[in-house]
Amino acid sequence: MEERYGRIRVSPFQFYICGGESWDFEGTEQWPAASLLKTGKSLVTVASKTDTSAVGLRAVTHESEPDARDLNEWERAEEVSVTFDGDPDPYFLVPFQNPGAGLDSDLEDFYIAPGSWRVRAYVRGSQQAYEMGLAGTLPTGDDIPSDPSALPEQFLIDFWPVTSLDPARVLKD
Predict the structure, then answer these.
(1) Residue 168 lies in a domain
(2) What is the dihedral of CA 125, 127, 129, 134, to 10 degrees?
(3) Edge-to-edge, what's the strand order for the sheet holding 43-47?
């Protein structure tokens, strides 16, 4: 098991988990607009209610399916299956940025191998982040706190390898 925690910039209202250079949005249009997770070719789009700021992201790899987290601690939770191509290995990507830009260093070298994975995401603090954005009080630029736990919107994403691509599942909405 490997666990990393840091900040990732979000714009516009999303960040990506990409595999290889051949990732594509193809297929993401089939998902409901309100989905937390959407999959494309070698791609998972993670939706956020934060824009032009950052969120706290805890990413955890497991050797097999982990127990579900306490859903009372989270606003939403969903899981999807995806196959990531290699070269380069899967990585987090901030829209409209070069790979590695907009991430804390702890997340830059987060590693999952190419192949088929189940991705389970949990989020909390979304409504607070949305309301702060509307009020103009969401920190941006140099005002973004260096401590990821100080950010209103927090994500936890569990990854584990799978041999079959099961349908998406909403655990909490």
Answers:
(1) no
(2) -170
(3) 37-40, 43-47, 14-18, 91-93
User: In terms of residue numbers, what domain contains 126?
Assistant: 2-163
**Per-residue confidence at 168, pLDDT binned at 50, 70, 90?**
very high
Q: What is the pLDDT of residue 100?
A: 67
Count of domains forming the chain: 1
Query: Can you tell me the distance from the alpha carbon of 66 to that of 80, in angstroms, rounded to the nearest whole number?
Result: 14
Kindly report the three-state secondary structure assignment for every residue of 38-56: EEEECEEEEECCCCCEEEE
Looking up residue 149, the CATH number of its domain turns out to be 2.60.34.30
Domain assignment present for 16: yes
Mean pLDDT in residue range 145-154: 97
pTM over 0.90: yes
CA–CA gap between residue 54 and residue 52 (Å, rounded): 7
Question: What is the number of other CB atoms lying within 10 angstroms of the CB of residue 68?
Answer: 14
User: Residue 9 corresponds to which amino acid?
Assistant: R
Please confirm whether the linkage preceding 12 is cis (ω < 30° from 0): yes
Neighbours of 135 (CB within 10 A): 8
CA nearest to 58, candidates 74, 82, 38, 81:
74
Q: Given its phi and psi angles, is residue 27 left (phi above 0), alpha (psi -120 to 50 degrees) or beta?
A: left
